[in-house]
Amino acid sequence: MQKIIKFLKEVREIFQTISWPKKDTLIQLTIVVISISIVISLILGGFDYLFTNSFALIGNFKNQASTTVEQVAEPSINPLPTVASTTGTTKK
Predict the structure, then answer these.
(1) For residue 2, is it within any domain?
(2) pLDDT tens, 50-67?
(3) Chain-centre distance of CA 16, in angstroms?
């Protein structure tokens, strides 16, 4: 228990000798950190967008090359009839 008390007293002495920044300096440094974070996130987001689109474009080129070689025919889709088109009579 004596070691813990001694440690806490030493910590208190060290904290009293620390020179804390003034409020204006703290605000300026906070603005710098937030600005740098925003710039870095925009740069990384831009690279992510470019890489994602470039890989999608490469994938589309490969798909187009394989479909032109195979000439796959897509089946046509007919819509289902509606109730109005099947009754044929209307009430007056």
Answers:
(1) no
(2) 999 988 888 877 766 666
(3) 43
Q: What is the DSSP string of 11-69?
A: HHHHHHH--PPPHHHHHHHHHHHHHHHHHHHHHHHHHHHHHHHHHHHHHHHHHHHHHHH
Overall domain count for the chain: 1
Q: Which of 31-45, 46-60, 61-75 has the lowest mean pLDDT?
A: 61-75
Coil, strand, or helix at residue 2? helix
Structure tokens at 17: 């000798």
In a domain, 30, yes or no: yes
User: Does residue 74 fall inside a structural domain?
Assistant: no
In a domain, 43, yes or no: yes
What residues make up the domain containing 52?
Answer: 21-59
**Mean predicted confidence (pLDDT) in 40-46:** 98
Q: Could you give the percent of the chain with pLDDT greater than 90?
A: 53
